[in-house]
Structures are given as C-alpha cells and as structure tokens.
C-alpha cells in the first residue's frame, strides 16, 4: 500500500467541481495508465489491507448550483467545496484506496415524497417542503392520488392504509414527518448523475488501480423513503409486507 500522498493530476481544477461537463474518458484512460506507471501504482487486487472510499450521493441534484436540492450551506457553495475536497483526496490517495463505493439517490416522479403522490379534497398537490403528518392523512387533509395508485398498479384502498401506516411508523420511530421534496435525482436525468469532476476522479482511480467502482442504487421503491443506502426509513407496509430491505451485501463488504 502506498505510504505517501500523490500529487493531483494536471487535468483537475477545483473550479471544475461546480460545473457540468463531459468526461473525456479515452484521454483520461491513457493518462491514468501513464500516471500509474510513473507513480508505481499496483492493481488493487494486490492490496493486503483494503480501504474503501464511500461517497454518499455526490450527485448533481445536491452538489451543483442551480440543481434541485443544491446544498449551499453558509458559504453559498458548501457542496461544491466538498466535491473538490473529495476529488483531491482520491487523487492524492490513489495508491491507498482499494475501491470507490458511490451511493446514488435514485427516483422517479411517482414516489411517496413527491407532490404527484398526494392530493387534497380540491385535487391539489402539496407544495415542495410540505410536511405531512399521520393526523393530516387520517383527517383527509392529504390523501393518496388515485391516479398515482392506478399508475403504480396498487389497490387505492390498500394504498391509503399503507400511507397512514407509513406516516405513523415515522412518528412512532421518532423520525421527521413525511417530507414532500422537489422532484430530484430523477432516473435518466442529468441531476441523477455524479458530479462530473467526481466521476472523472472515480474513473481515473478505476483505470489506475484496475478497481471497478461499486455504484449502489437506493430510493427507487415508490412507497418508502431511502435516505440511507443501508436501509429504508419504513421497511414494511400496513400488512407487514416488505417494502424494501437492508443492503446486506454492502454492510458485509464494509464490515
């Protein structure tokens, strides 16, 4: 295992962490093989002590200005700074990191936390950042959109029971209320992709170390939230049927 920090490759600039661009894969692959030769980087398969870098939801939707849930922080560019630091860390530790594991928040339009899933008695959808409590659902203030139930091929009455169960389960577990989020991390959309500078660094690592990155998809189940890659916020419906399970494969890998 390499014991010294490496220099940062010339193609990287911290300014790129907040931009959208196409990664020039062929060029970077050539440069990465030369970089590995110059710095005597061995394949990750030779690592006796293996280190994983777990990058959590470093996606455009959260990390690039102008996207749906950009995390600005007090500085106004917190997520951009974080992405830049992540890239620099990976480049400097190419010889130490055995594998990159990247979680990917992944959604479609009709999910429990998106506006289209819920309606009031006037047929209106909730606005983004609305908090929906179990009392709101029990009183009928917000209910399942019957057209969403049809599209998702679930019985409307069952879906209503499940929705109330879900909100109660959050409350009983001492968690936050069901939050209506802006449409984000949309599968097939540019917001879902990794920040280009981070993707570029991960690709460079893959070529340098012959180490396939492990992309962990989370959040696709329409009936539960999945903030953590390790498991869902609510795992069963009103009748005890499993909605989504823990990612035991990843847990075992990290353990």
The biggest sheet, with number of strands, parallel, antiparallel or mixed sense and barrel status, is: 3 strands, parallel
Could you give the order of the helices and strands? HEHHEEEHEHHEHEH
- If strands are numbered along the chain, what order do they take across the biggest sheet? 1-2-7
Q: How much strand content do the residues show?
A: 5-15%
Global mean pLDDT: 94
List the helices and strands and how they pair.
Layout: H1 25-38, E1 52-56, H2 60-63, H3 78-92, E2 99-105, E3 118-119, E4 131-132, H4 134-138, E5 143-144, H5 146-151, H6 156-172, E6 178-179, H7 196-209, E7 214-218, H8 248-254
Parallel strand pairs: 1-2, 2-7
Antiparallel strand pairs: 3-5, 4-6
């Amino acid at each position: 295992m390499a014991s010294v920090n490496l220099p940062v490759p010339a193609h990287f600039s911290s300014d790129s962490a907040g931009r959208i661009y196409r990664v020039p894969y062929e060029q970077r692959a050539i440069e990465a093989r030369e970089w590995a030769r110059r710095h005597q980087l061995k394949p990750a398969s030779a690592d006796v002590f293996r280190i994983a870098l777990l990058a959590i939801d470093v996606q455009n939707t959260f990390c690039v200005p102008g996207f749906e849930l950009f995390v600005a922080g007090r500085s106004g560019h917190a997520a951009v700074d974080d992405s830049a630091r992540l890239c620099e860390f990976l480049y400097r530790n190419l010889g130490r990191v055995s594998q990159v594991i990247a979680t990917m928040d992944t959604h479609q339009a009709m999910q429990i936390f998106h506006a289209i899933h819920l309606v009031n008695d006037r047929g209106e959808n909730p606005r983004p950042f609305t908090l929906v409590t179990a009392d709101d659902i029990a009183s009928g203030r917000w209910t399942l959109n019957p057209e969403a139930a049809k599209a998702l091929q679930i019985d409307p009455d069952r879906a209503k029971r499940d929705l109330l169960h879900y909100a109660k389960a959050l409350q009983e577990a001492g968690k936050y209320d069901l939050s209506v989020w802006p449409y984000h991390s949309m599968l097939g959309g540019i917001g879902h992709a990794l920040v280009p500078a981070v993707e570029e660094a991960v690709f460079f690592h893959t070529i340098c170390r012959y180490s396939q990155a492990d992309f962990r998809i989370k959040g696709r189940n329409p009936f539960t939230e999945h903030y953590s890659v390790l498991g869902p916020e609510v795992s069963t419906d009103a009748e005890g049927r499993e909605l989504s399970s823990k990612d035991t494969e990843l847990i075992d890998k990290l353990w």
